[in-house]
Amino acid sequence: MARTPHLVVFTGSGISAESGIKTFRASDGLWDEHPVEDVATPSAWRRDPERVLGFYNARREQIRRARPNAAHKALAGLEKAGFRVNVITQNIDDLHERAGSRQVLHLHGEILKARSSVDIRMQYRLAKGGIALGDLCDKGSQLRPDVVWFGESVPLFADACDLVSEADFLLVVGTSLAVMPAASLLNHVAYDTPCAVVDPNATELSPAGVLAINDTAGKGVPALVKHWKQQGALLLP
């Protein structure tokens, strides 16, 4: 019996931008309005937790209003067609899951969850609303967003490396490959595993030997998925 083709997809903010979610690095991105050192570092949390909570509460509502786009839906459709698809995302939104993807690893956490400030294992799903000062975990510690801030370790990075090393094809979508350690994931791909980058600036971003698809996620990903469905295999177009 033939082995199920295994696609590993590594997504960044570019895929969510097409759903109306601001990226961090664009000229009109989040950091223009909120310096990273004020809202996304452990020191910012210690200095002004109310400001940090307010920033993520506003982001949370934006993400709840957003909807999965054609790229999210295409990847979920490939999984439904019988391919094994694992998504590794730098994004903290839940658009992959809402599109129907079942195997999603969030490298930088999930904004629709809160977690304890003293025990990373204590997580709480936020079905509605946000986090306020005085909201405590079961150990009596202030709840914080379940996101990885700049200067913090990435707990799931080893799991992501394992997935990439097992892939039959690695697809990179909407990321500048500039944020470490996530950008080093490509170093864990087997030497003979085909890789492609879908991004409007793919030619500039793609390392040697990687197929560059200079297109938006909403156009490039569905086109690839259509090709794979027709071929029944993860072949280069």
From TrEMBL:
The UniProt keywords, alphabetically, are: Cytoplasm, NAD, Transferase
Annotated active site? H108
**Location of the Deacetylase sirtuin-type domain:** 1-231
The GO cellular component terms are: cytoplasm
Q: Report the GO molecular function annotations.
A: histone deacetylase activity, NAD-dependent; NAD+ binding; protein-malonyllysine demalonylase activity; protein-succinyllysine desuccinylase activity
Checking PROSITE patterns in the record gives: SIRTUIN
The chemistry this enzyme catalyses reads: N(6)-acetyl-L-lysyl-[protein] + NAD(+) + H2O = 2''-O-acetyl-ADP-D-ribose + nicotinamide + L-lysyl-[protein]; N(6)-succinyl-L-lysyl-[protein] + NAD(+) + H2O = 2''-O-succinyl-ADP-D-ribose + nicotinamide + L-lysyl-[protein]
Q: What is its EC number?
A: 2.3.1.286
Q: Which residues bind NAD(+)?
A: Q90, N91, I92, D93, G174, T175, S176, A217
Q: Where does substrate bind?
A: Y56, R59
Tell me where the signal peptide lies.
none
Which compartments is it annotated to reside in?
A: Cytoplasm
The principal localisation class reads cytoplasm
Q: Which domain of life is it from?
A: Bacteria
Q: What is known of its domains?
A: 2 residues (Tyr-56 and Arg-59) present in a large hydrophobic pocket are probably involved in substrate specificity. They are important for desuccinylation activity, but dispensable for deacetylation activity.
Q: What does this protein do?
A: NAD-dependent lysine deacetylase and desuccinylase that specifically removes acetyl and succinyl groups on target proteins. Modulates the activities of several proteins which are inactive in their acylated form.
Q: Which family does it belong to?
A: Belongs to the sirtuin family. Class III subfamily.
Q: Quote the protein name from its UniProt record.
A: NAD-dependent protein deacylase
Species in which this protein is naturally found: Vreelandella zhuhanensis
